[in-house]
Amino acid sequence: MSARKEPRGESSTKEQRPEGAAAERLALLHRRFGWTSLFAWMCLGLVLELAHGFKLGGYLLDPLRREFLTLAHFHGALLSVLNLVYVRWAEAPSLGATQRLHASRALVAGTVLMPLGFLLGGIQHYEGDPGLGIFLAPIGALALLYCVLIQLRAAWKPER
Amino acid sequence: MIAALAALAATVAIGARITGELRTPVELPQVAYATSEQCVMCHPGRYETWHRTFHRTMTQPARATAVVGDFENASLTYQGVTSRFTRDGERFFVETLSPANTMERYEIAMTVGSRRIQQYVTRVGDRHVRLPVAWNIEERRWIHLNGGFLDPDATAFNAHRTDWDSNCIFCHNVKAQPRLNRETDTFDARVAELGIACEACHGPADLHIRRNRDPLRRYLLYLGDRDPTIRSPRELPRMQQIQICGHCHGQRLPNPRERIAEFMTVGDPYTAGDDLSRFTTPIDAHTELAGTDLSQRFWSDGTPRLTAYEYQGLLTSEGHGSSDLTCMSCHDMHGGDPRGMIQPAMRGNAGCVQCHAEIGRNVSKHTGHEAAGSGSECYACHMPPTTYGLLTVHPSHRITSPAPARAWRNEMPEACTLCHTDRTAIWAARETARQFGTPPPDDEPSDRAFETAESIRSLFGGDVVQRAVAANALAQARSYTSDPTQRLWAVPFLLLTMEDPYPAVRHFAHRGLLELCARAEVGESAIGAAPKSPPFDYLAEPAARTAALQSWWSWWQGLDKRRLSHPGAAVPLDAEFMPRRDVITSLIARQSNHLVSIGE
């Protein structure tokens, strides 16, 4: 179906290692997604610094909001970096293509959902609990755990 | 996918279970109490706003952080007894007169009160005993409770030494249980928490806390469900809301009286949100109690004249039955200034015009006074300061319309002459009738005493509460004249009142004198400097008080009074601005010396 013309020399390599092309696509995805996500969460970090600088009471005087926005910034940035690092393992030889795809999707989902849950839970919150958005965080955490489990299993498997 | 579906199914099942549980009523009086330290985890904001209140610090263990009195070898001499206040590290001691007339050293176990007066409770055997000496927080000095309560000089030294376990415990803590053993006549008192904490108003929280450890339950509540495991005062019917405050701010007796045995042995059966009338009846002017004249706690028209009767005040207010007014219409337990706990948005006239908006739109038309002046303050006329409590005169919580005839019909202070202190009640009655176009009262008194300014008539001819209220009125900032120098005419009357046989009245007179002088900048202007020594102490022995008074009289007599105007014929002052002794003597002869028992 694809009308895209393969660059010279790649076609034969793909034929030999079709999984390699898929892994490369995953790596590209994580590179693009990782840098984009890192940029977004670093911007949030800048906003938080500005909130300190300009002494914004809505942030500084609300301990729960402050805690959850900080958590969002921290997790967002950390998980973005993990996506960039993950490029190295996207081609893990002991993983099948399906598992690789699952791990990749889980990592992306976790990277989006977990910090977003903290962010939304902190922006609108109840007196002693974060807002409803916080339910995204445990879903994201489960997705990340799933990704880590797949990679963990692959790491202990002998290479194919 | 299967795992996700299973998780979703489990969530739905748990949600359905919680929803069912939320719809099941809970017998709250059967639930255990938890303490405020448990509440803070979910309600940090509410905890913080409560934590800064005087409710929290009403009763505290005698730790260094709680004790505010001077225990660095301080002393107080009253009635010839020198009480000493010392500390040994974190332990605090009071040496004072015991009921056996010997000097005893008592270790302080608890403190009661933290805004105006801090009282001290020691342990004697199985009992906690409130000592008769206390620390006046506002004036930073030791006092004797005879001077804080309304007692004459000759009152016994230990008249206010009392058992905490059967008295103070009920209103100054959460869920009091004196646990009196009637066979051995011993107490084993317990409370759910010292001070007025969360569960005093919200009911016992143990079940609420346990069930709300489940986050799904909490989020279902956020989405709109009501929690049957806790009481939210604002969601209760109006009377139950008021009764939560009335439980302590409305002195009461068990209903029926025989139920006192249950109160003393088991404990207070009331739980926040219950119908208080099932357990107690508020004391009123007609309540009979052997050994105590309770009628003296009310003006003769039934208006409470002591604090801790605000509940009765509200119940007898005009329009109480048909209004939506509750304590929380003006007060907020979690906001505003802890002193008085008035909602910031309800300060001034805002509290009243939230219901009486039409009046608020043109307040001067309603009051006959300038809109921006103190004469247009709703409280000045409808909640005048006629209630005594802890060396302070508070606004009445019986909301009424001004009726100057009350002065002669009920022998009580009335709003107009609490500001127009140079005028008679008869003048006020005529003026009110003129302003509002109503006929003047047809029972104007022929008694010549009523030809005297009402403040002066009450100050010398009234009973102890009238005298305290009048002394307070002569100095209060809200006055008919904004010229503080012209108000100095009250000085000689206050000096005479500083000879009153009641220490509390002397206190008001002395404090008022200092306030008048300070406002008139006596020390700064040509008026002259007021005497600073010897200092006047309302609790001192008569000789010391007389010496200080002589100094004040000398100052007043020598003062250049050319800047003062005579306040008028109703004020019995001669041309030298000295009180007319004949008038004062005849007023004093009318004084009622009924003792007023303050049930605290």
TrEMBL record, chain A:
It comes from Eiseniibacteriota bacterium. It comes from the Bacteria. The chain crosses the membrane at residues 33-56, 68-86, 106-126, 132-152. This is Cbb3-type cytochrome c oxidase subunit I. Keywords: Membrane, Transmembrane, Transmembrane helix.
Automatic annotation (TrEMBL), chain B:
Keywords: Signal. The lineage of its organism: Bacteria, Candidatus Eiseniibacteriota. This is Doubled CXXCH motif domain-containing protein. It comes from Eiseniibacteriota bacterium. It holds the Pfam family Paired_CXXCH_1. Residues 326-358 form the Doubled CXXCH motif domain.
